[in-house]
């Protein structure tokens, strides 16, 4: 039985459509948010290939992400590796406090902005009370069965990005070894009807696989805490 996990970054308006797909197929997921960037109304975050990417309003967060796991993605999404220790500690600690205030539950997961991490960042995140984090590097193919669980939970390696051309090959390898398949991405990367339909077919396929089980991270790690 392969355990399947996914994380989605940045708290974007497009997450609403993505979550609709996940709910239809009972797929579990974690959403990685920057609470310091959400405003009273929806806000323009950046422009990607000529498209405006909008962030959800602060008041929408609780309802939109109800039933899903919430992680911190830092307070304001800086490169944590270039901050002073004081700034780094603030980004890690304040983001957790704000998210726990919004969602009224513990926030134990962390996603490093830009996938940038070093020993100081990791230890600061640990000191802020996080128990697991998405690692900066993809999982190696030669990991033994259960390989991702053998290392530091604060460097938990993803199997791949959801748009990786070898997505299904990596999935099948973890399925064969009864391992963990962990993918990540941003909902703004889904562009056009065809891509959204293909994504839904992918989620449906995993949900219908009798040898697959959607998993939250807190279901994977409790015995290790």
Could you explain the architecture of this structure?
Mean pLDDT is 93; it is low at 142-147. The radius of gyration is 17 Å and the shape is globular. Helix 5 links the parallel strand 8 and strand 9 (180-185). It is α/β, with parallel strands linked by helices. Strands 1, 2, 5, 6, 7, 8, 9 and 10 form an eight-stranded parallel sheet that branches. The protein has helices at 15-24, 61-64, 85-103, 119-127, 167-176, 192-208, 217-220; strands spanning 2-9, 30-33, 43-48, 51-55, 69-72, 109-111, 132-134, 160-161, 180-185, 212-214. Helix 3 (85-103) packs across helix 4.
What secondary-structure arrangement, pairings included, does this model have?
Blueprint: E1 2-9, H1 15-24, E2 30-33, E3 43-48, E4 51-55, H2 61-64, E5 69-72, H3 85-103, E6 109-111, H4 119-127, E7 132-134, E8 160-161, H5 167-176, E9 180-185, H6 192-208, E10 212-214, H7 217-220
Parallel strand pairs: 1-2, 1-9, 1-10, 2-5, 5-6, 6-7, 8-9
Antiparallel strand pairs: 3-4
């Amino acid at each position: 039985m392969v355990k399947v996990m996914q994380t989605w970054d940045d708290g974007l308006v497009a997450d609403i459509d993505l979550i609709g797909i996940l709910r239809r197929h009972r797929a579990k997921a974690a959403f990685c948010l920057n609470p310091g960037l959400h405003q009273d109304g929806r806000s323009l975050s950046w422009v990607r290939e000529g498209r405006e990417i909008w962030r959800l309003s602060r008041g929408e967060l609780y309802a939109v992400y109800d039933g899903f796991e919430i992680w911190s993605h830092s307070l304001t999404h800086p490169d944590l590796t270039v901050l002073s220790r004081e700034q780094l500690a603030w980004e890690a600690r304040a983001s957790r406090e704000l998210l726990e205030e919004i969602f009224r539950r513990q926030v134990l997961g962390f996603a490093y902005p830009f996938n940038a991490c070093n020993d100081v960042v990791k230890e600061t995140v640990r000191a802020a009370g996080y128990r697991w984090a998405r690692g900066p590097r993809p999982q190696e193919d030669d990991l033994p069965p259960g390989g991702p669980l053998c290392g530091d939970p604060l460097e938990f390696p993803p199997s791949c990005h959801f748009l990786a051309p070898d997505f299904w090959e990596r999935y099948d390898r973890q399925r064969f070894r009864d391992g963990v398949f962990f993918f990540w991405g941003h909902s703004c990367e889904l562009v056009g009807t065809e891509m959204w339909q293909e994504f839904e077919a992918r989620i449906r396929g995993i949900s219908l696989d009798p040898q697959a089980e959607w998993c939250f991270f807190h279901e994977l790690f409790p015995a290790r805490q």
